[in-house]
Amino acid sequence: MSYTRIQQRMEVLKTSGRKALIPYIVAGDPALTVTVPAMHAIVEAGADIIELGMPFSDPFADGPVNQRGAERAINSGTTLADVLKAVSEFRNDDCDTPIVLMGYLNPVIAMGEAIFCEAAAAAGVDGLLIVDMPPEEEGALVQSAKMAGLDLIYLAAPTTTDERLQIIGKATSGYLYYVSLKGITGSSKLDTASVSKRVVHMRQHVTVPICVGFGIRTAQDAAAISSTADGSIVGTVLVSQVEELVDQPEKIPSALKAILEPMRQAMDANG
Amino acid sequence: MALTEQELRTLDYEPDTGGHFGDYGGRYVSETLMAALNELDQSYKKLKNDPDFQCEFDTDLASFVGRPSPLYHADRWSKAISGAQIYFKREDLNHTGAHKINNTIGQALLAKYSGKPRVIAETGAGQHGVASATVAARLGLECVVYMGAEDIERQSPNVYRMKLLGATVVPVESGSRTLKDALSEAMRDWVTNVDDTFYIIGTVAGPAPYPQLVRDFNAVVGREVKWQSKEIFGKYPDALVACVGGGSNAIGLFYPFLREAEVAIYGVEAAGRGLSTNEHAAPLCSGRPGVLHGAKTYLMDNNDGQIAHTHSVSAGLDYPGVGPEHAYLKDIGRANYVGATDEEALAAFHEVSQVEGIIPALETAHALAYTKKLAASMRSDQTIVCNMSGRGDKDIFTVAKMEGISLT
Fold first, then answer.
1. Distance CA A20, CA A260 (A)
2. Which pLDDT does position B165 carry in this prediction?
């Protein structure tokens, strides 16, 4: 079986003793024209993988900041086809950085699972993270994703039992996304010590790399998390920045870069 | 997909272990909610057969709600229509004025028996919020109700009622600022505070096991109708009619009759300004299957899978999804789903008020509008039971305003 771009990147990081920095932005927030330049800026800042949000009108697992990001994207007319177009355009200049599309199931069902997976793979997408599709509910999408060679990334939570961790560990490919807090994206409390302990425990059940998201705001957070985890996922703090610059969208790429660079440095200084 | 009559008579109509009704239902939720739903599933399975729990539930239904609610012969209206005999199941006479109290008592007792001191709820028109605040007060539980900011403006009397009952009402400013956004916000609260918090959901929608447990608590309605109809007219009704938003009052009436295949079943959705317009709230009549709020079900979305804004004169039916069991009953052909427009519902609202001396809720008025059509096509020795799911006191301001009458 051939390695996917995500698996390759994780291998390279492991060999070089570095950890993955995985930023999240919403495609089309505040407009699709900003998305591709923002993605390139994110890569320049040292991102290893990009999680690109597919906007959905009712994102109940997200906090208010990310929901507003999705609303801005939908209001600017961003469709799922537009998200794929942005990936395609990004691929004109970057063939190396893995891209994971993150979102909810209904827009995917609306396009058709098989059509979506084929189109995503053709556009240069490497993985899918469907927030409201736990392994128990996997259906047409899983088959289609496998056929298209896309990694399917699943979530684990602090409340996930060992029994479920094994199921999730088997289902997930590329990496496992550990939701570090019991809350929603953008919650404020982050207990890095208990996250580390949990990551160590999860490795008994999960063989793929474990990346941690929810609540990582500062370079210190990112460094502390990635001292045990295989990567830090940074979302809300970036979406907040986009929101602040909604009237000056040309400044967004460099502002995102300015947030991520210190994180990259702090994470690399760890090793 | 439609099943034969023999199959309909022998199905057990229970979800599988994952909470699926056929293709529908299930648990389409983020992993962060899984543990809470599994815990709820376990505790419900245990308490469902716990005699203490059942006894307390039955006692509260009798002495706090006022059950059984009567089955009333709408004699004058039946004669005026000159078709089938119409009976109303008087859920409007329940404490707090609607069927909602049946399932909120059940859920609040689950909270109590699971040791959760705090309950949360979402509400659209405020009826479910009031019912939740009522039982929370009754059981001494802290209660937080999420309500869309726009609904708060439209339903100020209910907001005040909830506050009188000691609940905190949190305005939801996101999205369309209505019921679906309140539901999202309540789920977020639950994910964050799951250790001490029970989420009292307002209808048979949402992730498993909610559609099943809300149905089970509401099924008291249909069970009563079974013995009442035998007692009053010596047989089961020929047809059942109920309005469907999320679908809890409807499933409560329908469920005990599902295997009685000779009883025709009609769920009435809000056709708003007409099913051919985009301004309605009728996912079963003109939506398609998708995933919303944790369940696979029929819903209203645009071509890109974004959930649509709905319209209905009745806030309680103004929801883009529907309980997954209704989706299943539609596909297997056990129940028929039809629409009633704003206009038809308003006409029925006035007619039943004047002919029967009962002011129905605007939600219920949709069921009444269809009941009238159906009755006219039936014989006078046939019977229809229409669920009078709620009383219309809450709606008089809305109706007056639409008719240009100022009440202040």
1. 12
2. 98
